[in-house]
From TrEMBL:
<dbReference type="InterPro" id="IPR013216">
    <property type="entry name" value="Methyltransf_11"/>
</dbReference>
<feature type="domain" description="Methyltransferase type 11">
    <location>
        <begin position="18"/>
        <end position="115"/>
    </location>
</feature>
<dbReference type="InterPro" id="IPR029063">
    <property type="entry name" value="SAM-dependent_MTases_sf"/>
</dbReference>
<dbReference type="GO" id="GO:0032259">
    <property type="term" value="P:methylation"/>
</dbReference>
<protein>
    <submittedName>
        <fullName>Methyltransferase domain-containing protein</fullName>
    </submittedName>
</protein>
<keyword id="KW-0489">Methyltransferase</keyword>
<dbReference type="GO" id="GO:0008168">
    <property type="term" value="F:methyltransferase activity"/>
</dbReference>
<dbReference type="Pfam" id="PF08241">
    <property type="entry name" value="Methyltransf_11"/>
</dbReference>
<keyword id="KW-0808">Transferase</keyword>
Length: 247
């Protein structure tokens, strides 16, 4: 998954790179590894997540020099044009106004600098065996994210969002993941422990919101697990956008 998402992303030594919404540092670790010498500044609104990110980098890359900040994306403590590059991964999907976020980040980017944005799109899921119950379970997560102000289908919107926020030279690549029993590491690491685990985690909220019944939810989750078993296949697409702030 790291190769899929981070291929082509490397920043020159000495460049100043802002990662917004770094969470527990999963992507920060890859940025540090792919861009030795770059000055990484990682920001998250959650102090507990930042603590985990610091610990992760201290264990995996003890020599890495990362500058950590606890701050809100819409109130960042940086001056205009103070970064050469921006990296935003799995953040826009959670925001009620992702275009406003991209406008705020554009202020921080120097002329000629770039932004990389990576998001998924739950509408890209393909299952075998297909199951209406499994799709309904996935849709529960989509609806809950929408009720919280986010968009689980935002991957398909990256180009227009960046264009409307004033970025130039926009390119978007689809980064599909296809999983079957010949790729056991992805069956465990992605299908079961990432995607299905994410859907399972919203079960109580989906029931509380009246989006499903206990019986339908159990059937949907069981059918999702079926695609991770022998004879099952799973497909999901991420979208990776690169854009620039022209001089």
């Amino acid at each position: 998954m790291a190769a899929l998402l981070h291929e082509g992303t490397a920043y020159p030594a000495g460049s100043r790179v802002l990662e917004v919404g770094c969470g527990i540092g999963a992507q920060t670790a890859h940025l540090v590894a792919s861009s030795p010498g770059a000055r990484i500044v990682a920001v998250d609104v959650n102090e507990a997540s930042l603590g985990q990110a610091r610990a992760r980098l201290a264990a995996d890359s003890p020599d890495a020099e990362v500058e950590w900040h606890c701050a809100d994306l819409f109130d960042l403590p940086f001056s205009d044009a103070s970064f050469d590059h921006l990296f935003v991964c799995f953040v826009l999907e959670h925001l009620p106004d992702p275009q406003r976020a991209l406008l705020e980040l554009r202020r921080l980017l120097r002329p000629g600098g770039t932004v990389t944005a990576i998001e998924g799109d739950h509408g890209s899921v393909l299952l075998h065996p297909d199951s209406a119950h499994a799709r309904a379970a996935i849709d529960c997560q989509v609806q809950l994210q929408s009720l919280a102000g986010g968009d689980a289908h935002i991957g398909r919107r990256l180009q227009p969002l960046l264009a409307e926020a004033g970025y130039d030279g926009i390119t978007v690549q689809a980064r599909p993941v296809y999983v079957d029993q010949n790729r056991p590491e992805l069956v465990e690491g992605f299908t079961r422990n990432t995607f299905i685990a994410m859907i399972e985690s919203v079960g109580s909220d989906a029931l509380a919101a009246g989006l499903t019944t206990s019986a339908d939810w159990r059937r949907g989750v069981a059918d999702l697990h079926r695609v991770a078993e022998a004879g099952g296949t799973f497909h999901y697409t991420f979208f990776k956008a690169l854009a620039a702030k022209l001089p």
